[in-house]
Structure formats: C-alpha cells, structure tokens
Design goal:
Shape: globular
Largest sheet: 7 strands, mixed
Number of helices: 9
Helix content: 40-55%
Number of strands: 11
Length: about 300
C-alpha cells in the first residue's frame, strides 16, 4: 500500500513559487519562513521522486515534470476547496468565507457603498473582495480562486452562470473650458471627430469606449493611455482632452476644473452581472446577493436596475 505524507499546504507552496517566481516571494505570500517553504518543497520532490524546479541563483523554473504537476496541483486544490465549500453550504449557505472579485473601474465606487449593506444582510459571512482586470478575474473564477466575480456583460464562460445586477450609464467628462461645459447633457453624435482619453490595454472599460468611438465617429487620443479612472480625471482637469466616466465614479458634488454630462444615447452604458460556477454549492446565496445589489443599485445609488440581460 502506498503511503504519502503529501498535504494540501505543500501544493499551495508549490503553486506559490511558480506564481511569484522565487522562493522568497512565495514564502512572504504564504506567511511562512523561506527555509520552511523550501524544506517542505524538497520533501515533496523527494516523495514524488522527481524535481519540480530548476534552481539557480537568479530564478526558479519548472521542470517538464513540474509543469505537468502544476496542472494537477491546481485541480486538487480546486476540488478540495469545493469540498469544503459544499460542506459549509450544507450547514448554512449564509455563513463562512466568500471570495468575490470586481474589476477596477467598478470596485472602488461600488464596494464602499455596499459594504454596510453586506454587513447588515450577511452577518455570518466574511467577504474577501479583490480588484483585478476582467481577464484575470475570469481565469480566477474558472480555477476556483474566486467564488464569484462582478463583470460587465456579455460573458460567455464555460460552466458559469450569470445573474443580472444593474445597468450603469456613461457620462462625458470635459474640462470646464470645453464648449460642452455649459450644457445639461450631450448626444452621442456630438462625439464625432472628438479625441477621447482612454484607459490602457486589459481594461474592459477601454474596449467598451473604443466600441462607442467606432460607432459615433470619435477616436482615441494617440499620445496618452491611463492606468485608472483617476488618472483620466486628472488629465481632463488639465485640459488635455475629454473622456467617458461610469456613473458610479461621477461625484455627487461639483469638482473644480471638470464637468460631467450625461449622454442621451442609450448605448452609453454597461450592464453589470454576477458570475459564478454552476457547480458552486451556494446558489441560494448568489440569487439573494444579486437581488440585494440589484435593489440598492436601482434605488439608493441612482443607477438603473437591470431586470434582464439580452
């Protein structure tokens, strides 16, 4: 009979080294000393009978066996997490730890407004909220690192269910010196010939803005790309150009140097949805959470509720 001392923590160490590139960085992420992590991985390699890493003074690389083992280790940890979650959900679907990911142009403005609501509605749940770009969140959802993610529709991920939350309008942000500054709103056709300041690659909001530029005859400002909405906002204040800002990121008070104008065309919006794996045991929680966000974003946050995603 085969006896193994392998444990899930050893696999977490293994995955962390591959993810962070060095034993030192991995040990910091795993909150253990570097000798402890290195020692456990050495024992794991001895038990498996093959090295997982090529070690040098400059970097650590996976061996051929290590690359094969990595996929299996990720799958084992995912299944172990699902087993633990299923056991917790059977006891009480509204207790335990839940990991939710949100993309960067939504999270900073939505989560603080909902934090108190979550605490009041779900006192037995400990929420871990993470901000990442959409592509990373999709990967994390599929491999089990996130229980659910908030994304912009449409989403077509294998084995994933989608619940509608709300529809968020886009506003035009212009300098106070711009000809639109005195207007109550603008029309999409006003964008024809305009240059828009946009986010850099990897942001779903950039892709949405580029699509609107193509439809309405605008183009991207070629000499600048921002890393976040606050940088875009600052560039508008300096008079560098104009941009689009999601409704939740529009302040409820006047700001010096910048004006926000609603866009009358209905296409200037994004539909926000809650995505989770169909195999996740807490379907009751996701349905309830979607209703809570839907209700409060439609009323308290003055953002249009989304009853169905076409």
């Amino acid at each position: 009979m085969y006896n193994s001392d392998m444990n899930l923590r050893d696999l977490e160490y293994f995955i962390a080294v591959e993810k962070y590139g060095t034993f030192r960085s991995a040990s910091e992420h795993c909150y253990v000393s570097q000798p402890t992590l290195s020692g456990q991985l050495k024992k794991l390699e001895e038990e498996l009978g093959h090295p997982l890493f090529e070690r040098s003074t400059r970097k650590v690389m996976l061996t051929d066996f290590g690359r094969e083992a990595l996929g299996l280790a990720l799958d084992i940890l995912k299944k172990a997490g699902e087993l633990k979650q299923r056991a917790e959900a059977l006891s009480d679907p509204f207790s335990g730890t839940i990991r939710i990911g949100v993309f960067p142009t939504l999270g900073p403005w939505l989560i603080p407004r909902l934090a108190g609501i979550f605490k009041a509605q779900y006192p037995g749940i400990r929420f871990f909220l993470t901000e990442e770009k959409t592509e990373i969140l999709q990967e994390q959802l599929l491999n089990g690192e996130q229980d659910a993610v908030l994304l912009a529709h449409p989403q077509d991920l294998p084995g994933v269910d989608v619940l509608p939350l709300f529809s968020e309008a886009f506003y035009a942000a212009v300098p106070d010196t711009h000809s639109w500054a005195g207007r109550s709103c603008v029309d999409g056709t006003d964008l024809e010939g305009e240059q828009l300041l946009l986010l850099g690659d990897g942001h779903c909001f950039r892709d949405q803005a580029l699509d609107l530029c193509g439809k309405y005859g605008a183009r991207e400002h070629e000499s600048f790309r921002a890393t976040g909405l606050e940088t875009l906002r600052q560039m508008v204040r300096l008079g560098t150009g104009i941009t689009l800002i999601p409704k939740l990121a529009v302040p409820d008070h006047a700001e010096p140097g910048i004006s926000y104008k609603p866009v009358s065309d209905s296409e200037f919006k994004r539909d926000i949805v809650l995505c989770f794996r169909k195999t996740h045991p807490r379907r009751e929680l996701w349905d309830n959470l979607a209703e809570v966000i839907h209700e409060h974003c439609g009323v308290d946050l003055d953002v249009a509720p989304l009853s169905w995603c076409e």
